[in-house]
């Protein structure tokens, strides 16, 4: 198996990664819809392979407050996955789920934080489940670790961990709902280079 070079992905490889992103985001939308018991429309997700330093700009800048839920991946795939929510999106989900009217992270109770963690866990789980089904690879995830902090600080964790094997991550930017109920979620998939090889070879690349 030849080793993949993330700086020289051809269109066909990238189309496969984009399709993985599409299917994963679709699964996550279904899970979110069931969780809050409301039909949710999803815009076509935007899939990009980006350097870590560029990801924080997409989520509103390095100093913007976000929720980050980090999972370590094991099994046939090694790496990390992070699900990030913008502040307004996190508030909206907790408000819908618990019938509240929060608009500031400082107002979150332990119960609100627990609900937010569970939302992230379910959405991330749905994404990983679709990746596992599509590739026929066994993927297990750690207990999720949730943090509310500035985007730059949250992204520094996987950046430091994986900086030694590469500086790129697969970002799947998803919009659920519309207008005032819009939720912006960001899946950041950071497999090891060997795992990228496994993912692509498992679907015949």
UniProtKB/TrEMBL annotation:
Record keywords: Glycosyltransferase included?
no
The record's listing under CDD domains reads:
CheC_ClassI
State what protein this is by name: Chemotaxis protein CheC
Q: Which UniProt keywords apply?
A: Chemotaxis, Hydrolase
- List, for all copies, the residue spans of the domain called Chemotaxis phosphatase CheX-like: 69-148
All copies of domain CheC-like protein, residue ranges: 12-48
Q: Name one GO molecular function term.
A: hydrolase activity
- One Pfam family hit: CheC
- Alphabetical GO biological process terms: chemotaxis
């Amino acid at each position: 198996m030849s080793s993949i070079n993330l700086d020289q992905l051809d269109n066909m490889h990238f189309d496969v990664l984009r399709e993985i992103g599409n299917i994963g985001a679709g699964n996550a939308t279904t899970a979110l819809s069931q969780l809050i018991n409301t039909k949710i429309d999803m815009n076509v997700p935007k899939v990009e392979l980006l350097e870590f330093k560029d990801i924080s700009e997409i989520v509103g800048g390095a100093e913007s407050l976000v929720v980050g839920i980090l999972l370590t991946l094991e099994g046939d795939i090694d790496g990390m996955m992070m699900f990030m929510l913008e502040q307004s999106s996190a508030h909206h989900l907790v408000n819908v789920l618990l019938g509240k009217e929060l608009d500031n992270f400082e107002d979150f109770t332990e119960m609100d934080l627990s609900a937010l963690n569970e939302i992230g866990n379910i959405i991330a789980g749905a994404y990983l489940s679709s990746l596992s089904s599509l590739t026929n690879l066994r993927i297990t995830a750690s207990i999720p670790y949730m943090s509310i902090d500035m985007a730059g600080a949250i992204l520094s964790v996987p950046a430091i961990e994986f900086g030694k094997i590469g500086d790129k991550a697969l970002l799947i930017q998803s919009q659920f709902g519309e207008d005032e109920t819009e939720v912006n979620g960001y899946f950041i998939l950071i497999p090891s280079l060997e795992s990228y090889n496994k993912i692509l070879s498992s679907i015949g690349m």
